[in-house]
Amino acid sequence: MRHGKKVNHLGRQTAHRKAMLANMACSLIEHKRINTTVAKAKALKQFVEPLVTKSKDDTTHNRRLVFSKLRNKYAVTELFRDVAVKVADRPGGYTRIIKLGNRLGDNAQMALIELVDYNETYNTEKKAKTTRRSRRGGGKKTTPVVDTPKASTEEE
Q: 103-106 contacts: CB < 8 A, separation 24 or more?
């Protein structure tokens, strides 16, 4: 049983695990989606979601807290400038894990982890409906042309 065991150690020492999660989080923020194993994706989700929550309130203190975890100023800037704006109205659940199957070399379960608001496929907003035209031309109605006699100047 796993009573009280909150952290998946991923078979690494503490410093290696923290560095790996920081690098993966920077890659996720930069590229908006990355491929990794399911276990690492779940650990990364727990690591990055509190950072995204902190980025919604752009203060110097929050920037320093996030920088202490990520250790990459470009990723911090991207997180506070672009990602925080997109997730401003979302109350949580900033990432999505999609299982991809097993890796060929060692049969490890692979997953795609992505930022939810950057995937246009799963976007729930409905587009404005555009008018459609039938290919057979039945949609257009034409008004009949009536011949009107022109006033001739010869009769006058």
A: 103/37
